[in-house]
Every structure is written in structure tokens, then in C-alpha cells.
């Protein structure tokens, strides 16, 4: 009887460990991907329609792993491992949003990071800006007529150099009118298309059904072949891979470089979350250099990794300069 009584709390605690879930999410080092390499048989950064240069070494983007639906026992084991961080679930999955909505937002952030990475790299390489289609609404007047990535050169014979020119011309139109658009398409000859304008929900003018940006444009295509990755933090490493593939010489000096950071259209590098987890992932993958967004340096130095140089970057240009300095044996900015 004494033995049975003693076992009851032990068994009860064991059941609690195995069954009861906790309102926490575990964050830890995730997989890394070489932006100069391949994923599922395709180049991670695929450039078609122009000559690319040989590359070597690594430019690895890093990620943070997330574990949700943790039982009490699983949460305790992850916490005791010293590799994982437990954070309140509401910080990762806000109560007013479903898990699917959060995932959709992360996917959208990743898509925007791909676009920003392309434009930032082309801007660094001095490609001229053009009025560029970013989104084509389907259904919509321009569906099947224009595609994302097209550069619009003229409307009804009048040149358009930027979004202001485009909007001024459209303000004079009305629903049902036809406009003739001269455009350039990547890896194809320039073309002309006629679009019948739709009704604008907020204005009297006609609706084309596209979103446009004034950004650097190139006649070749750049595609990023990574799936199931969320958030904006791959932007810097994607941009560096584009620059490396389009310029002569190894940008990384054949070193194993990893890093992280969001990137803006003008090349500014922004801070991200989980920097210490990403540094651990990079070191375990074999990296010897890690590019740290300047605003993440204070956190990064709290948990340095042996054998991993932390290089501070503020922009795409500063990241390129830092890597070139390292390759030449010089001293780049450090955290």
C-alpha cells in the first residue's frame, strides 16, 4: 500500500509531462541554405538570360526553427538542452490571428524579401530604374496582358518613367477606355498590348489592375528557389548571391560566409529576430564568418560562437566592401 501511494504522484506527474501542453513555443537554430548552391536540384538563386560568373565558397542564409504544441515534458527537455529558447506562444502566434494567417504573413514577407533582394542588387550594380509591374490582379483588366516584372515604357505613346507619370496619365482616363501600353519583358522582345480599363473602386478614372514600383530593371530574370521559408531575413544573403553571380571574382574569397538581415529597396540592411540561434546554426554548418545587421550587434555579442567572426553590416554596399576587405586580408567592421 505504501508503495502504491508513493507511485501515484510519480505516475500523475509522468502523465502531466506527456499529455499537458504548455503555452510556449521553442526557438532554436534552424537549417542553413547556401545561396550560391542548389536546393532540390535547382539553383537557390537562378539567373537566366545573361552570363553569370563562377563562384566558390559559401554565402549561407540562416533560419530559426520553431516548435509549437509542446507538451510539458518536451518543453522541459528543450529548455534543459541549452540550445532552445522558450517564448510565450502569443509572441509568435498572436491571439487575434490564426496559425494559417501567421504563416501566410510570413510567406508574404519572404516573397517581398525576394523582390527587395533583386532590386537592391540591381541598384548596387547600377541598372537603370524603370516603372516595373509588381502585381497583376487576376481577375483584372491587365490579366493576361502584363506580367510581374514587366517594365512599362509608355502609355498611349506617352513615355512614363516613374509611378507619378503613370498615375497622372491614368487620372485622365475613364472605365471602358482602351489604353495602349509599351512594355519590356525579361528574356523576351519588347511588346505592346491594349488594355480595356475597368472601374476603379475609389476614383472616377479607369482601373488597370496592376501595382507598380519605380525600381532598377534588368532584361534578364532572377528567381529564388526556396520553399517553406518565412519572414524577411534572407534578403541580404540573396542580394549578395546575385551580386556575386553577376560580377567577376569571388565575393567571399572562397570562405564559408553565413549571415542574415532584411534588405530594403535602397540596399539598407535591417535587424531580424533570433540572431544568436542563427549564429549557432552557422557555426555548426561550418561557417567562419557571419554577417550581422548593425542593429543586432548588441545582442550578437552576448553569445559569441568560437571560430565565427562577426562582421557588422549596415547596407548591401557595406556588406560587399566588408567581404572584399576580408578577402584582401584587411580588417572589416566588427560587432
Automatic annotation (TrEMBL):
The active site is at 233, 278. SUPFAM superfamilies: PDZ domain-like (SSF50156), Ribosomal protein S5 domain 2-like (SSF54211). Pfam families: Lon_C, PDZ_2. InterPro entries: Lon_proteolytic, Lon_Prtase, PDZ, PDZ_sf, Ribosomal_Su5_D2-typ_SF, Ribsml_uS5_D2-typ_fold_subgr. Gene3D superfamilies: 2.30.42.10, 3.30.230.10. It catalyses: Hydrolysis of proteins in presence of ATP. This is endopeptidase La. The lineage of its organism: Bacteria, Bacillati, Actinomycetota, Actinomycetes, Mycobacteriales.
